[in-house]
Specification:
The protein is mostly beta strands. It is 0% helix and 53% strand.
């Protein structure tokens, strides 16, 4: 069974940090680009960060650039998102996802990803 499981969410004060982790199983995820998305209440899901299968290409949404860092450990089948200088507007459910194209590029559209985790809540208090 192909599965992604996120962890690491929680409540943090503005300016604080959190590290999200995504554990993958059931597929050789090391061959697929991975992405982090988020969805705030009443808003559409949005791309946050993406990393290529090799880790050689990384992209961030403008809203998180310079504050968030995505990384992956293919030996452990994990992807992480380190979030610093958090703002109340970062409050959302965060999802990790696996692209469906073997060794394809990083893509920013959710429809490009075929496996999703259950999400982890991040709440940033002002």
């Amino acid at each position: 069974q192909v599965q992604l499981v996120e962890s690491g969410g929680g409540l943090v004060q503005a300016g604080g940090s959190l590290r999200l982790s995504c554990a993958a199983s059931g597929r050789t995820f090391s061959n697929y680009a991975m992405g982090w998305f988020r969805q705030a209440p009443g808003k559409e899901r949005e791309f946050v960060a993406g990393i290529s299968w090799s880790g050689g290409s990384i992209y961030y949404a403008d809203s998180v650039k310079g504050r968030f860092t995505i990384s992956r450990d293919n030996a452990k089948n994990t992807v992480a998102l380190l979030m610093k200088s958090l703002k109340p507007e970062d409050t959302a459910v965060y999802y990790c996802a696996s692209d469906q194209i073997f060794r394809g590029p990083v893509r920013k559209y959710g429809s490009s990803y075929d496996v999703w985790g259950q999400g982890t809540q991040v709440t940033v208090a002002s």
